[in-house]
Write a structure and sequence with these properties.
Length: about 230
Amino acid sequence: MAARGPGRVSVLLPTYNERDNLPLVVWLLARTFSDSGIDYEIIIIDDGSPDGTQEVAQQLEKIYGSDKILFLFPSGTAYIHGMKYATGNFIVIMDADLSHHVRLHFVKQKEGNFDIVSGTRYKGNGGVYGWDLKRKLISRGANFLTQVLLRPGASDLTGSFRLYRKEVLEKLMEKCVSKGYVFQMEMIVRARQLGFTIGEVPISFVDRVYGVSKLGGNEIVSFLKGLLTLFATT
């Protein structure tokens, strides 16, 4: 008897200046889901990209069909807006910069029937490729601080590649108040508080193929402020 699949999966794909990446990441996702026999939809939520990303997303919607590709203009937080339109019982959150892959998350979810499966760069054969020493030190340092101060029971809190049960994600969204890089960290911390189960999958994170990372000084300061706030309130 064949294993029961995850039902329908909704991928929330926030974009900003991803014109070159978007067609390829959509094609890779569509091929992965089709090969795995998983029913899916990809919800593209663009934050006003000036590079033509929106036009590319509209063309992809026409090519794949609106039952598979849905293009939205965000109203408020991209993930919250995207969830309003998601029809899947599982939701994948990821970037559109070609750094992530998705199949192993579903394998892990079925193994342990987890509420959340998070990609980790800091466990098993996970790793980061294409980063300079400065970015590696920032990422490692941020993760070390979160482990020491918050003790979350997960090895990678700052990654953005996760699979959620839809009802779990909805509950976490109600609790989380952070934005930016701190948001990903708070989601795991709140999940542990609420007793949700979390599985981890080692991932090889490859730096952006096109475009420029948005990580900068302001994001680092915001992260530190958010970390201290979570430490004081959890």
